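Model it.
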Amino acid sequence: MTLAGTWQLHHQWGEHGYNITAKFGADGSITVKGGFFGTWTVLGTSNQVALAIANFDRGSQFFGSVTSYAGNVSGGVMGGQMKGGKRGGTISQGTWHGIRRSILKAPKEAHQVPD
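Modeled.
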């Protein structure tokens, strides 16, 4: 299973929530405007996913933030629990969900069955 494509992610930290548009690369990378980057993986052959997104852009108000995500994916939707915080701050827990907005085209070699 691949998550490659553009996803709209909603984060809910208590009463506060916000949305981001994230590009999930076929190589397991995540990029988000504003200096955020990360990684994604599907755990084994299941529908469980793990994500991590961080920001180390010194010019960003989110400098030093790191958030880990664990959840489930089914087709073009996913969601679960997250934990994160800013550098030197309190760790917070929240929920998240995502909707796939577009799918990246995979290179031809990605469709080949391994020997």
